[in-house]
Amino acid sequence: MHSIQLTVAYDPRMKRPLQIQADWDPEASVWVATSEDVPGLATEAETLEALEAKLKVLVPELLEANGHLPDGPELSMEVLARRVSSTSIHLR
């Protein structure tokens, strides 16, 4: 059986926003951001607002370092936040 691994990086010619996943880490009480569109992205912050501020700095730096910085004055990011929680079931 063969294993195939694909690496997908952001293509600056694409017009869609960069997809960034933000997952809540309940043990550390932080939001953790990663992205297949931004190679090397792994950062965290206590709030989504603080995470977005970090992403505005880190994402262009990482894209430039990887040779994927798009032409033009700006780039678009879509942050998809996911937080899983549980609750007790009270049966009568």
What can be said about this structure in brief?
This protein has 92 residues and is an alpha+beta fold. The protein has a domain of 40 residues.
Describe the protein.
The chain contains one helix and four strands, in the order βββαβ. The model is unreliable at 1-8 (pLDDT under 50). Strand 2 and strand 3 (42-45) form a beta hairpin. The protein starts with 17 loop residues before the first strand and ends in a 10-residue tail after the last strand. The protein has one helix spanning 48-65, and strands spanning 18-25, 30-34, 42-45, 77-82. With 92 residues, the protein is an alpha+beta fold. A four-stranded mixed sheet has the order 3-2-1-4, covered by helices on one side.
Observed structural traits:
92 residues; alpha+beta; 4-stranded mixed sheet; 1 helix; elongated; disordered N terminus
State the major sheet: 4 strands, mixed
Strand and helix order: EEEHE
Question: What percent of the residues sit in helical stretches (DSSP H or I)?
Answer: 10-25%
What are the segments in which pLDDT stays under 50 over at least 5 consecutive residues? Answer: 1-8
- Coarse morphology: elongated
Strand order of the largest sheet: 3-2-1-4
Percent of residues in beta strands? 25-35%
Mean pLDDT: 88
Structural class: alpha+beta
Q: Compute the number of helices.
A: 1
Total strands: the figure is 4
Kindly report how far apart the N and C termini lie: 52 Å
Using the CA coordinates, give the radius of gyration.
17 Å
